[in-house]
Amino acid sequence: MVELKTEKSIDAMHAAGQVVARALTAAREAARVGVTLLELDEVAREVLREAGATSPFLGYRPSFAPTPFPAVICASVNDAIVHGIPTDYRLRDGDLLSVDCGAQLDGWASDSAISFVVGSPRPADLRLIETAERALAAGIAAAVVGNRIGDIAHAVGRACRTAGYGIPQGFGGHGVGRRMHEDPEVPNEGRPGRGLPLRAGMVLAIEPMLIASGQDGYHEAPDGWTLRTDDGSRAAHVEHTVAVTESGPRILTAR
């Protein structure tokens, strides 16, 4: 069931989204060579604490997970696509890092992710990240009243495929509201004009995930959470929580 949010509820989700935005900005600023992923998680925790927000990630345990998630961010390095668990791994020069974060504030959730390079970037990594951001922008532009979920999926997928990148099948965006994951699912590839009609008051997390090699294969790491590319190629993941409104898409997690 898809819940349509009121303008007041969307404003409340925007407040949660701004906490997420601050947490991601702080984590990116702290992400230097030699810093551990656990230290980045603590940076994000402090932002949530200061805002009086809680984490929808911490303790989250969907049906596929062997254990509850132990952190407030997902930190996915290089060939990790999504759901990376923060560890004592120390960032190295040239690492491609994707950070995903959520916040729950006054009963409402928001969710967002960024990808960036630590230290000296490879041109190929910059192209991958730029394409991911372009795919996200295309998906957001399609999130308008009168379109359908398939229009968002098609916009994201076309930007990824045209650039020659792979898309991990079975993972994508989702509805957001009182909980971090709600209906509907928002795939990263699909046919335009298909799927659920978009209505004012729908709030969606749109989140492209790209694999650099152009292959789609991935596997679950031994920790039961992290998804890694089968061929070891690098991946990027970006995300915004977006409200569908009569006046167009409203990005609730804009930084």
UniProtKB/TrEMBL annotation:
One example GO MF annotation = initiator methionyl aminopeptidase activity
Could you tell me the EC number(s) of this protein?
3.4.11.18
**The protein's required cofactors:** Co(2+); Zn(2+); Mn(2+); Fe(2+)
Q: Where is the Peptidase M24 domain?
A: 12-246
Which residues are a divalent metal cation 1-binding? Answer: 100, 111, 239
Cofactor annotation comment? Binds 2 divalent metal cations per subunit. Has a high-affinity and a low affinity metal-binding site. The true nature of the physiological cofactor is under debate. The enzyme is active with cobalt, zinc, manganese or divalent iron ions. Most likely, methionine aminopeptidases function as mononuclear Fe(2+)-metalloproteases under physiological conditions, and the catalytically relevant metal-binding site has been assigned to the histidine-containing high-affinity site.
List ligand-binding residues for a divalent metal cation 2.
111, 174, 207, 239
Q: Does the keyword Metal-binding apply?
A: yes
Q: Can the keyword RNA-binding be found in this entry's annotation? A: no
Q: Which keywords describe this protein according to UniProt?
A: Aminopeptidase, Hydrolase, Metal-binding, Protease
Q: What class of enzyme is it?
A: hydrolase
Function of the molecule:
Removes the N-terminal methionine from nascent proteins. The N-terminal methionine is often cleaved when the second residue in the primary sequence is small and uncharged (Met-Ala-, Cys, Gly, Pro, Ser, Thr, or Val). Requires deformylation of the N(alpha)-formylated initiator methionine before it can be hydrolyzed.
PANTHER family, from UniProt? METHIONINE AMINOPEPTIDASE
> Could you give the subunit structure recorded for this chain?
Monomer.
The family note in this entry says: Belongs to the peptidase M24A family. Methionine aminopeptidase type 1 subfamily.
| Stated name of the protein | Methionine aminopeptidase
Q: Which organism is it from?
A: Streptomyces lavenduligriseus
